[in-house]
Amino acid sequence: MSRQRISVPFTDEHTVTTLKAGDQVAISGTIYTARDAAHKRMVEQLEKGEELPFEIKDQVIYYVGPTPAKPGKVIGSAGPTTSSRMDRYAPALLDLGLKGMIGKGYRNQSVIDSLKKNKAVYFGAVGGSAALISRSIKSVEMIAYEDLGTEAVRKLEVEDFPAIVIDDCEGNDWYRQAIKNYKQ
């Protein structure tokens, strides 16, 4: 396990392939938000042959529904959403070049297999630390699906966003490794 500062979008595949399950990272750059309803809509657009609301290649999606910003802040609380709710949509987006996802909780085997196939990574953000995470978000821009409210797609500029590599591009799962190590 290591600590790394990384930049997104992932324009260099080498960065993704060097990340290992359990690595702590500080992410800086551009990430996009999307939750259940936005993922459903994006996949429906793909099925209709329509373009997505942003270029997904090399990008990272954060599973979050931020609360409204308080005066003087760019965003409200921005804690991670349970990732398994996006599992049915993730492989299609990974096949289009999505390189990272941030959320909380386990991913199913089809997502882990798709991460390996597409050389992508799943990061965990710590649930319960929404106020702390929001400090790393420097700007927010509405991109699509404003009618979905907190589930709309937003573009975030982040600096030193704290996360842990849960599933790396080799199929290693930090949650499962940690449980195994604990039992020993």
Automatic annotation (TrEMBL):
Gene3D superfamilies in alphabetical order: Fe-S hydro-lyase, tartrate dehydratase beta-type, catalytic domain
One Pfam family here: Fumerase_C
Superkingdom per UniProt: Bacteria
SUPFAM superfamilies associated with the record: FumA C-terminal domain-like (SSF117457)
InterPro entries the record matches: Fe-S_hydro-lyase_TtdB-typ_cat, Fe-S_hydroAse_TtdB_cat_sf
Keywords: Lyase
Domain Fe-S hydro-lyase tartrate dehydratase beta-type catalytic: 13-177
Keyword Transferase applies: no
Family membership: Belongs to the class-I fumarase family.
UniProt protein name: Fe-S-containing hydro-lyase
